[in-house]
C-alpha cells in the first residue's frame, strides 16, 4: 500500500469521525461531503473512475445540497444548549476514536492478509454495459425504489403542509 | 410470464396515481385485491409447467431472469393471502379515504418487492428488492406520523441500514470470491473449495443482515416497537409476511441454492433459532400490549423455521416451509383480530379489555383458533408443521433442540391462554359497553382465515403432498 493511500484512509476515518461527533448539523454535512470526496479519490486510485464520479457528484454534491436545504428550515439552538450537547456527545461516544485506533492497529498487524484476486472483467463489459444491458432486474428494482421514495415524500410530508 | 407478478402491481400503482383521484381512490382497493387474488389463484391452481410454457411478455426487451420452484410457489401463495388480508384490514380500519389510498399504494410496492425476492436468482437483485420492501415498510410504520410511529420507523431505519451495510459487504466479498453474484455462480465457487475464511465471513455477514431484517433474537429490538406504533393493518403485513421473507424464505433459498450448508452454519442457525424461540416466547409472556405480544410471538415462530433450516434434512425443510405458510396465516389472523379489537375498544392494552367474548364471539373464536395454531395444538395447521420440525430434529439426533421446541410450545400455549382470558373472559371491562363485532368485512376476513387454519390442519395430507414435499426435495 502506497503512503498516499494510507494517508487517504486515515483522513477518511478522521472526517467520518468528525461527521458523527460534531454537534452542528451543517458541520456534519460538510464532514460527510469531505468523507465522500476522499472516498472518491480512493475509488479513483483503485481503478474505478465511474464509481468515483458517482460518489463525488451524488454523495458529495447532490446529497449535501439536499441536507443544507433541509437544515436551512431549522432554527439555531442557544450557545449554552450547544455546549451541553457537545459535552454529552463526547461523553456518550468516547469509545469511537478508541475503536478506530484499535481496529487500525489490528489491521496493520494482520499477519496473513487473505490473498484476494479481482475477477477479470470481460472486454467491453464496463459499468455502463453492466448497468444497462446485464442487470435488468436491478434496474427495475431501482425504479420501484424511486417510486417508493416518491410515495414516502408525498405521504409523510405533503399532508403535513395541509395540516399546518 | 412470472415477471407479471412484479410488472402487474407496478403498472397498477402507476396507473392508479395517474388517473383522476375521484376514480382511483375507490378503485385502488379492488385493483390491488384483484391482483392478490389472481396471484393466489394462479399459484394454487396452476402447475409449474404453466409458467415455464409461456414466453415472458417483456422478454425481447428486458431480461428479468426470474424463476419459480416449489419453495417460490409456497411463498408466493403466502404473500398473496397476507396481502389480501392486509388490504381488507386496511379498508375497514383506515377511515380517511386518501390515507387508505396511500396505504394501498404502499402495499402494492411491498407486494412487488416480496414477489421479486421470491423469484430472483441473483444475490444482488435479492438485496435490491429487499430494500424495496424495507422502504415501503418505513413509511407504513410511520403512517400515523405521531411520536411513537416516527420512533418505531426510525429504529427500523437505523437497524435496517446496519443490515444493509452487512449484506452489501458480504455481496462484495462473494463477487470477489466467485466472480459473479448469481446463485448458481456463487454456489459453484463455494462448493468446490469451500471458500475458506473469506467465504465464511461473507456468509456470516449476510446471515447477520438477514437476522436483523427478520427481527430474530438478539436483533429483535425494533420489531415490538414497530408493531405497536404501526397501524394495525400494516402490522398484518409486517408480521404476516415481511419479516418472514428474510427470516424464512431467503434463508431457505440461501442454504439450498447459494451457500452449501456446513456443520458450523447448521450450529449457528440452530442456536439462533432456539434462542429466538425462547426469547420470543418469554418476551410475549410479559406483554400487556396485544400487538407487542404478537410481535414477540412472531420472533418465536420464525425461530422454529430457522431451527428447522439448521437441522438441514429434507423433512426439516418441508416442515420449515409448512411452518412459514402456517405462521403467515395464523399471525395474519391474530393481527386482523387486533384490528377488530382496536377498532371497537380504541386500545390494544389487554389490561383495559375483558369480557369481550360475548360481545365479539366470532373474533373470540377466530383468535382462539389462531393462538392455538401458533401454540401447536392438534388438529390445527400449526400442530402439523411443529410436529414435522420436532420429528425431523429427533431423526437428525438433536433431542435437546427438539425438547426446547416442545417446551417453548407449552409456553406459547400459556401466553395464548393468558391473552384469551384477559381479552375475552370475565366481566365486561369499563367503557366497553358499546363494543360489538367490527363490521362485516373484518368478520368475514377473520372467519375465512380461521377456516384456512382449520382446513389446512384437517387437510394436512393434501398440503403436505402438493406443496411441502416438493420443497423438501430441493435439498436432495
Structural notes for this entry:
The complex is a heterodimer of chains A (164) and B (476). Chain A folds into 2 domains: 1-111; 126-164. In chain A, 77% of the residues lie in helices and 0% in strands. Chain A contains 7 helices and no strands. Helices cover 79% and strands 0% of the residues of chain B. Chains A and B meet through α7 of A and α1, α5, α6, α7 and α9 of B.
User: How many domains in all of chain A?
Assistant: 2
Shape of chain B: globular
Q: Most extensive interface, residues per chain?
A: A-B, 25 and 40 residues
Q: SSE order of chain A in H/E notation?
A: HHHHHHH
Average pLDDT of chain A, rounded to a whole number, is: 79
CA-based shape of chain A: flat
Structural class of chain A: mainly alpha
Number of strands of chain B: 0
Helix content of chain B: over 70%
Q: Specify the number of helices of chain B.
A: 20
| Total number of strands of chain A | 0
Which value, in Å, is the CA radius of gyration of chain B? 21 Å
| Ends distance of chain B | 28 Å
Radius of gyration of chain A: 21 Å
Structural class of chain B: mainly alpha
Spatial separation of the terminal alpha carbons of chain A: 56 Å
Amino acid at each position: 500500500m502506497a503512503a498516499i493511500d494510507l494517508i487517504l484512509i486515515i483522513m477518511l476515518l478522521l472526517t467520518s469521525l468528525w461527521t458523527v461527533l460534531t454537534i452542528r448539523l451543517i458541520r456534519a454535512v460538510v464532514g460527510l461531503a469531505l468523507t465522500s470526496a476522499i472516498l472518491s479519490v480512493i475509488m479513483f486510485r483503485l481503478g474505478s473512475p465511474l464509481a468515483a464520479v458517482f460518489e463525488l457528484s451524488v454523495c458529495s454534491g447532490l446529497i449535501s445540497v439536499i441536507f443544507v436545504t433541509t437544515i436551512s428550515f431549522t432554527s439555531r439552538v442557544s450557545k449554552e444548549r450547544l455546549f451541553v450537547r457537545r459535552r454529552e456527545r463526547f461523553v456518550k461516544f468516547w469509545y469511537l476514536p478508541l475503536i478506530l485506533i484499535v481496529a487500525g492497529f489490528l489491521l496493520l498487524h494482520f499477519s496473513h492478509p487473505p490473498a484476494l484476486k479481482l475477477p477479470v472483467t470481460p472486454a467491453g463489459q464496463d459499468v455502463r454495459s453492466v448497468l444497462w444491458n446485464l442487470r435488468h432486474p436491478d434496474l427495475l428494482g431501482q425504479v420501484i425504489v424511486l417510486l417508493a421514495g416518491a410515495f414516502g415524500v408525498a405521504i409523510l410530508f405533503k399532508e403535513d403542509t395541509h395540516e399546518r | 410470464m412470472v415477471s407479471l407478478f412484479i410488472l402487474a402491481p407496478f403498472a397498477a400503482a402507476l396507473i392508479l396515481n395517474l388517473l383522476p383521484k375521484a376514480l382511483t381512490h375507490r378503485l385502488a382497493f379492488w385493483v390491488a385485491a384483484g391482483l392478490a387474488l389472481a396471484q393466489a389463484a394462479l399459484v394454487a391452481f396452476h402447475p409449474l409447467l404453466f409458467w415455464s410454457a409461456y414466453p415472458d411478455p417483456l422478454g425481447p426487451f428486458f431480461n428479468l431472469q426470474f424463476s419459480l420452484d416449489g419453495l417460490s410457489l409456497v411463498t408466493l401463495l403466502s404473500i398473496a393471502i397476507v396481502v389480501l388480508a392486509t388490504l381488507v384490514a386496511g379498508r375497514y380500519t383506515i377511515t380517511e379515504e386518501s390515507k387508505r389510498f396511500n396505504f394501498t399504494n404502499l402495499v402494492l410496492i411491498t407486494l412487488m418487492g416480496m414477489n421479486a425476492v421470491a423469484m430472483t436468482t441473483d444475490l444482488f437483485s435479492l438485496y435490491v428488492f429487499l430494500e424495496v420492501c424495507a422502504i415501503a415498510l418505513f413509511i407504513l410504520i410511520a403512517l400515523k406520523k405521531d411520536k411513537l410511529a416516527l420512533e418505531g420507523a426510525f429504529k427500523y431505519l437505523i437497524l435496517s441500514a446496519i443490515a444493509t451495510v452487512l449484506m452489501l459487504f458480504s455481496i462484495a466479498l462473494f463477487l470477489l470470491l466467485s466472480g459473479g453474484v448469481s446463485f448458481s455462480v456463487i454456489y459453484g465457487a463455494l462448493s468446490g473449495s469451500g471458500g475458506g475464511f473469506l467465504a465464511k465471513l461473507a456468509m456470516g455477514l449476510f446471515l447477520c443482515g438477514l437476522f436483523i431484517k427478520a427481527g430474530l433474537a438478539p436483533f429483535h429490538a425494533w420489531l415490538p416497537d414497530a408493531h405497536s406504533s404501526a397501524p394495525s393493518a400494516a402490522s398484518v403485513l409486517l408480521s404476516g409476511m415481511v419479516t418472514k421473507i428474510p427470516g424464512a424464505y431467503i434463508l431457505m433459498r440461501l442454504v439450498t441454492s447459494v451457500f452449501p450448508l456446513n456443520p458450523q452454519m447448521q450450529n449457528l442457525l440452530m442456536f439462533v433459532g432456539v434462542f429466538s424461540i425462547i426469547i420470543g416466547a418469554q418476551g410475549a409472556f410479559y406483554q400487556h400490549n396485544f400487538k407487542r405480544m404478537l410481535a414477540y410471538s412472531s420472533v418465536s415462530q420464525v425461530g422454529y423455521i430457522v431451527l428447522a433450516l439448521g437441522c438441514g434434512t429434507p423433512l426439516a425443510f418441508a416442515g420449515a416451509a409448512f411452518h412459514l405458510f402456517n405462521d403467515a396465516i395464523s399471525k395474519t389472523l391474530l393481527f386482523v383480530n387486533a384490528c377488530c379489537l382496536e377498532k371497537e375498544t380504541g386500545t390494544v392494552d389487554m389490561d383495559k379489555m375483558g369480557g369481550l367474548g360475548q360481545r365479539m364471539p366470532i373474533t373470540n373464536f377466530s383468535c382462539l383458533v389462531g393462538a392455538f395454531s401458533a401454540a401447536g395444538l392438534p388438529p390445527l395447521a400449526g400442530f402439523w408443521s411443529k410436529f414435522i420440525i420436532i420429528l425431523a430434529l429427533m431423526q437428525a439426533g438433536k433431542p435437546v433442540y427438539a425438547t426446547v421446541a416442545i417446551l417453548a410450545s407449552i409456553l406459547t400455549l400459556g401466553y395464548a391462554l393468558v391473552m384469551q382470558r384477559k381479552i375475552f373472559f370475565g366481566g365486561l371491562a369499563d367503557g366497553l359497553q358499546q363494543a360489538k363485532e367490527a363490521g362485516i368485512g373484518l368478520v368475514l376476513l377473520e372467519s375465512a382465515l380461521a377456516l384456512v387454519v382449520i382446513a389446512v390442519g384437517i387437510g394436512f395430507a393434501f398440503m403436505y403432498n402438493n406443496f411441502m414435499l416438493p420443497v423438501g426435495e430441493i435439498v436432495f
